[in-house]
Amino acid sequence: MKYENLAETELLQLIAADNGAAYEVLYNRYWQPLFLFAYKRLKNKDESKDAVQDVFINLWKRRNTLQLTASLRTYLFTAVRYELLRKIAQSKKTSGSEEMMLMPVEAATMDMLNEKELQHALTIAIDHLPAKMKEIYLLSRHQHKPVAIIAEELSLSEQTVKNQLSKALLRLRQHLKEATVIPVLFPCIFYFLNI
Predict the structure, then answer these.
(1) The domain defined by 111-195 carries CATH number 2.60.120.230
(2) CA distance 71 to 140
(3) Which end of the chain is more exposed for a tag (fewer CB within 10 A), N or C?
(4) Could you tell me how far CA 131 lies from the centroid of its own chain?
């Protein structure tokens, strides 16, 4: 059976049934992006590898009981964030350099604690878009359809679709900027908008 083309849900079902080949496919699919994500924050190859490895080991250990409320991708990146937090906290204790380590911990903690709130604010902002603009935004950002396809499906010019997308993104940014009380969250908005 070819596992490479299977969806995440199918792979997870196979992994829950102790299928090592499906686990290996999942590992190969996500290891590099998770490592790059970790390395960007830690700037240490060994610690970044360890963080990602720990997440995958934990995934295998919990394979029979794991129940995801979000996508596997979201789960894995969030798990790596927690692992990075743990490593930063350990490093802070052992190095004694509070000034250097306190800032990343606080920023990462704020990011993790408020992602759900930010996602909720984005959902509300999308719901407040005019109907056609909302439809175009969802087709582009949630269904990942190119501008040309959206234009064809909705019988609009490509320029109209581009204009509507630009306006939607401006409105969403503005809504989220107003809804976000904590300034440290604002950089995360671009992640949720998929720009």
Answers:
(1) no
(2) 19
(3) N
(4) 26
Distances (CA, A) of 147 to 141, 142, 163, 169: 11, 13, 11, 15
pLDDT tens-digit series, residues 22-35: 999 999 999 999 99
Q: What residue segments make up the domains of the chain, in order of their start?
A: 1-96, 111-195
* Cα–Cα dist 103/109, whole Å: 10
Global confidence as pTM: 0.49
* Cα distance between residue 33 and residue 29, in whole Å: 8
CA 4/CA 6 separation, integer angstroms: 6
Q: What's the CATH code, domain 1-96?
A: 1.10.1740.10
Other C-beta atoms lying within 10 Å of the C-beta of residue 186 = 13
Please report, for residues 66, 88, 107, 155, 168, the alpha-carbon distance to residue 146 in angstroms, rounded to integers and kept in the order given: 34, 40, 34, 14, 16
HSE of 172, CA atoms in CB hemisphere, 13 A: 30
Least confident span in 69-83, 106-120, 121-135: 106-120
Other Cβ atoms within 10 Å of 15 Cβ, number: 22
